[in-house]
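ok so i was messing around last nite and threw this chain in just to see what happens. nothing serious, just curious
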Amino acid sequence: MKKGLIFKTILNVLFYIFLVFLLVLFGTVSYLANTWKELTYQEILFHLKTSIEGTNPDMVISGLVHYGLPMLLLFIALVLILHFVKKKKPSLKTIVALAMLLVLLVANVFNLIRFNNRTHVITDFINSKKGLNGPDFVGNNYVDPATVSYTFPEKKRNLIYIYLESMEMTYADKENGGGFDENCIPNLTKLSESNENFSGDNNILNGGIILPGMQWTTAALFAQSSGLPMQMGVDESKSDKSDGFFPKMTAIGDILENEGYQNVVQMGSSANFGALASFFKDHGDYAIHDLNWAYESGLIPSDYYVNWGYEDEKLFAFAKTDLLELAKSDKPFNYTMFTIDTHFEDGYVCRLCGHEFGDNQYANVMACSDRQVSAFIKWIQKQDFYDNTTIVITGDHTTMDSDFCNNVDDDFQRKTYTCIINSAMSPENDKYREYATMDLFPTTLAALGVEMSSNRLGCGTNLYNSDSTLIEQYGKEKCNEEFSKPSKLVMSLANDSFTDADLEKAQEVSYMEVANEDGTIRFRLQDADTLNMADVKSLKLSVTDSADNDKKYDFDMDIEANRVGWCGVVHSDIPYDHLEQLSCQVYISVVDYENYLFNDYEPDVFTLWDIQMDNSIE
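result:
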């Protein structure tokens, strides 16, 4: 009786754990699918591994209210149903419980399929686990900015770079190249059309296409500053730690710092969110004027908090003070800004917002941002420093709002808003350009009058020159496909240089796994990915089979640099029943080490690997 009671209790506990898991999974996936239609696997991975300090609490509350609470009520309802069934017909309780789990399981399967159809997150996750053994499109088209020579004009121009949260050219009317019947951003439309957006002799809006690895704020900053997609490999947890944010990469902040620029960034939210502070600290040593700085400076009360921190009205007011102070120096300045009021869902309604679009709150917020940015630009143009200042205004990415662009034609190419004002350069021709946001990296330097020995920096192309962008050269579909793949180059830039300590740590924690595959042995090396696998040139496995007269087998192990948890696998012809009489040696070639004995593995330390449960192995 006692054993039966224990077994019954265990089953009940497992049932409720599984029930809660399925409900939480359904609610979470529904929230992601309905709220972030442009969500990507890389974005999820990035934010799981970096700080979310400063996240708008309304987003969390909204998720809990609209998805968490219904799942809680459903859980209570299911428990009550089971209690009722147990009381009335105890024999049916198990059947009803299993039916509940089955229904929820099927519902989750369909929900995940729906989620993947909308976002491709699951597909991208699977593709990211296929390793880095193929051609590296990003690496093959990359020009290291550190190897390029830069000649700045004798009087260096100031730069004001404004990232407009979620701002698209799409919000304009169709007559001006947008996707709406009514223009939500008339002032920004006029500003872009009367300055430079690389539409050639077409007097319409043009903007940057968002390629994979550029779809969220940190990734947008990363792409527009370095000409690269944001991809996080096995050491992504280091991105906002002391090891540095892509320590081997050269970004625009590095170049301007080397030329004596004062680098300052201002935002109304916490710069700790999404490792933004780490990026600016490591690539240009920017002075960071964020929400925390505003508290410390006494610009806002210590208990003031709206939206993500403080509203854009204050952002522009603080920026005016900063710019006037910077202009007093004899050094040029690079002033970068991030607006936030237009963040999804539906934006933040400040005291300046009107109701010209009725109950369409997001359109009203966009129109409010349109007026504020336009007024700020007019103020800059009245200042003494303007004549020697170039202004770049760009959307960081296309909107993540769940429904604002529902009525935009499916075949309409959504692009970020782009406008360059008071450039030192003019385009070589009047051609309408197809470009990605990463092309703004070299283009911005050219707009400052900088002469470069290469018109490509990173994977970005100087749009003032007639050289083709990657999108013009290969096509948008090809670029989307290739930028979705992991890049050896990006991973090598992301991680610290190889050290002896790295090798010693990998030797200490790694172990050999073996699997029985149709009567033969399959090997893989586990946890050696504490190394930056992009530095590893080769891994070789040598096996001695004492059950077969010390017969030796030598294998090249595949380096799976984007595979969390392991870094090599090989399927041998060695009979599985010889397992207890094998000895294995792994040799590594990394940096200055050539065929170095990484580790010895004897049968008593082998770990069994159930290959049937590993769905990621083909």
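not much to say yet. Residues 233-242 have pLDDT under 50 and may be disordered.
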